[in-house]
Amino acid sequence: MAGAWADLHRALVRNLAPGGWSRGRKPGRKPGGGPRRAGVMAPQWIATGMALSLWAAALLHLFWAFGGLWPARSEPELVRMVIGSRSAAMPPKGVTLAVAVLIGLAGFWPLVMTGRGGLPVPAGICAFGGWGLAAVFLLRAGLGYWPGLWAAELPFYRLNRRYFSPAILAIGAGYVVLSLVGACG
After folding, report:
1. Cα–Cα distance between 172 and 61 in angstroms, integer?
2. How many angstroms separate the CA atoms of 94 and 97, rounded?
3. ∠75-77-80 over CA atoms, to 5°?
4. Is the model's pLDDT at 69 over the cut of 70?
5. pLDDT (tens digit, 9 = 90+) per residue, 25-35?
6. Which of 38, 50, 174, 176 suits 184 as a labelling partner, its CA being 20 to 30 A distant?
């Protein structure tokens, strides 16, 4: 099994590194005469997609913190849809604001990992943060599929399995990929 993980790591590093998909080919020229870039910078695209997705989720949590109800029509319906609780009330405003801030910071970290965050973060701290966030998101995604953890009669159960957990799993996988390709170093 360890050999399979090593093979996966080598393939990711080789193919997702800048210029990895076009390795061995000449870059050519753009129609305007300048040199064409030799391949897609996959870690940059992954980081950008993760950042935009997480910032959208943070904005939605911010909206809920200030009383927004979308996609529901009432607060009890919203609680059943996005929290998975039979309670009739949303969590306190401060808790929802804290979640929004944490999700927003988690969205900033992929940019830090790829050197576009504007912060000089030491490579060790950067990698630790990447692996830590990967663990948090993968754990949350896994709990979304844990049998009996969520009440099956609530709308959250269906939404969580169909939308929330797969999106969270993709974000966790993005952190794993960025960490494996050594985006911090």
Report:
1. 19
2. 5
3. 110
4. yes
5. 445 544 555 44
6. 38
Question: Per-residue pLDDT averaged across 51-57, rounded?
Answer: 98
Residue ranges per structural domain of the chain: 41-111+120-180
Q: Report the candidate in 70, 67, 88 with the shortest Cα–Cα distance to residue 79.
A: 88
Q: What is the DSSP string of the chain?
A: -HHHHHHHHHHHHHHHSTTGGGTTS---B-TTSSBPPSS--HHHHHHHHHHHHHHHHHHHHHHHHTT--TT-SSHHHHHHHHT--S-SSPPPHHHHHHHHHHHHHHHHHHHHHTT-SS----HHHHHHHHHHHHHHHHHHHHHHT-TTSS-TTSHHHHHIIIIIHHHHHHHHHHHHHHHHTTTT-
User: What angle, 0 to 180 degrees and rounded to 10, lies between the N-to-C axes of helices 2-16 and 42-65?
Assistant: 100
Residue with the two structure tokens 């999106």 = 167
| Pick from 137, 112, 136, 111: nearest CA to 123 | 112
Under 8 Å between Cβ of 46 and 178: yes
Listed residue (101, 116, 106) closest to 45, CA to CA: 116
CA 54: distance to chain centroid? 6
